[in-house]
Design a protein that fits this description.
Blueprint (H helix, E strand, L loop, with lengths): L12 H38 L8 H9 L14 E2 L5 H17 L1 H12 L5 H38 L11 E2 H18 L2 H10 L5 H6 L1 H15 L5 H24 L4 H4 L4
Parallel strand pairs: 1-2
Length: 272
Amino acid sequence: MTHPRRRSEEPDFWDNAEVLRGVLIRVFIYFLVAFSVAFVLVPSIFDSVILGPCRADFVTYRCIERLSPGESFRTGSFPIELVNIKLGTQFFLHIRVAIAIALIVLVPPVLIEVWYFVRPGLYRGEAIALRHVLLGMPILFYLGVLVGYFLVFPLTLHFLVFYNLSDLIANQLSLESYMSNFFTLISAMGIIFLLPLVVKLLATVGVLNVDTLKRGRQYAVVVLLILAAVITPSGDPLTMTVVFVPLYLLYELSLLMVRVEKPGVAKSSLSD
């Protein structure tokens, strides 16, 4: 018995191209609007948000001081002063920040466009699996961005700025270096937090299963500890702990998502 097609009439190449063109035009319009709004707002939020970790009253530093009052968490040398040594850096940085904000804001609407574009060509089981992935992506990505902003970046900044190889060397942090590390660490954490969805997809196609993840838990702990040490190269146990905990919770979330994955979901989609 032949399976029914996904659509009553299969569109030809040019129909798909026309739909894709409409999607790209809408996404471009979304980007222009988001970029324009972000460009206007950047000067008003730059000091309070982007440069927030440079001040002693940043929420992460205050929490750490309350949690470990006996530790020598230096905030006396704050605020951290940034210097600009290149002409035009601040203008182009203004544009980069506006683009970054626009891209972050556009994650949900772009995923919605992706959903409506590919949905007609999917079986019911495939559509359900894709919907779960698309719903989880912005949640996990934004959660990773928040962890990067409130934990990973400020702790890394604090350690590296106040690390002294010699008392004869004064640390002067350039604006370009600060922003490069800011974008890199925060975007990296956003991508790392997509790990549960990657594991779920691998489990769906049969590459991974619960037993494999359980057997690899002890190795995962070692790898995550190393990763936490690389992200925050500090000898402070508290610093490593606050980075390691969310990474380990991601692993457990991945295991949970694989455990609740229905066996044969990928195959069952072909019978719909």
